[in-house]
Design brief:
This protein has seven helices and 19 strands. By secondary structure, it is an alpha/beta fold. Strands 1, 2, 5, 6, 7, 8 and 19 form a seven-stranded mixed β-sheet that branches. Helix 1 packs parallel to helix 2, helix 1 runs parallel beside helix 7 and helix 5 runs parallel beside helix 6. The chain binds flavin-adenine dinucleotide. It comes from Nitrospira lenta.
Amino acid sequence: PHAFPFPTVLDSPSMRDVVIIGSGPAGLTAAIYAARANLAPLLIEGWQSGGQLITTTEVENYPGFAKGIMGPELMKDMRTQAGRFGTEFLTADVTAVNFAQRPFTLTVDGEQTIYTQTVIIATGASAIPIGLKNESRLTGHGVSTCATCDGFFSKGKELLVVGGGDSALEEAIFLTKFATKVSLVHRRDTLRASKIMQDRALHNEKISFIWNTVVEDILGSEVVTGARLKNVVTGKISEVPCAGIFVAIGHRPNTSLFAGQVDMDEKGYIRTYRGTTTNVPGVFAAGDVQDSTYRQAVTAAGSGCMAAIDAERFLESQH
Ligand code: FAD
């Protein structure tokens, strides 16, 4: 289901200067810049029109919105802004790419072929969920995958963090600035995280550890009120009250489509060099798809701007 009532037919020629893949903050900002540079970009939106922020409620850290803004509204406005300068939208998925030679070819929904001189990859990343029905239902209502985004709402509350790697510990430590107590639920009895992060977490008096344990269910009708836990060694079930659950078991960049076409790191993030350039001249990457560190709307938007400028300069250098 796509959230916005925009035309989705491709009525211009299928040879392009710039095609942007993805309609999150990175893709839409790239579109605003490319459109204003008169490059008539085509933006292929993908299965999640508006990107990750359409799944959230209040966004309080995007500059320019002093009172905060709802995620879907922010994305709708970004899309309108990109459209205003002539971005053409295609509400479809890219299903195959060939970057072996220019013009590059993109296959859309397994049918249509599009040729383009440059590509901006902005396909984002997804947080890996635990996989519980109540987890998706209560996302934005106490379930979160981003402490930087939602930590502030946790003032004076008791929280759970799920995971055992560096990012889980980072989230837990960050959350102790707001929460009265943070319990880290980990399915093993040792942490995967680096020694330095472990030391910091183990010495933080607000953090306690619940070892050998998985989350069986998340409790609460309107908002999170607790979790049902299962000890994987003893099989014992317990219920713990909490006001928030931060799931930090990893992120997966949306890059399977680009396997063998462009360089990626060992986790599948696209490698960028000098701004947003990849190892393939003419292919650029922006936003969470190339960033496992910051993962914010504003950093994604910033790199989308960079990618459009990089693509524009690349095209100029070809004349
Ligand atoms: P995404 O937003 O992930 O967008 C990726 C896009 O790629 C989507 O449009 C998708 O349809 C498209 N796509 C994927 N595959 C294909 C394909 N094959 N073909 C075509 N298109 C494709 N950040 C903040 O700064 N503040 C917050 O308060 C905040 N809250 C958040 C709350 C939640 C619940 C979540 C999940 C994230 C939150 N974030 C927040 C993080 C923020 O949403 C991301 O950092 C940001 O959306 C990344 O933008 P992006 O453009 O790189 O990718």
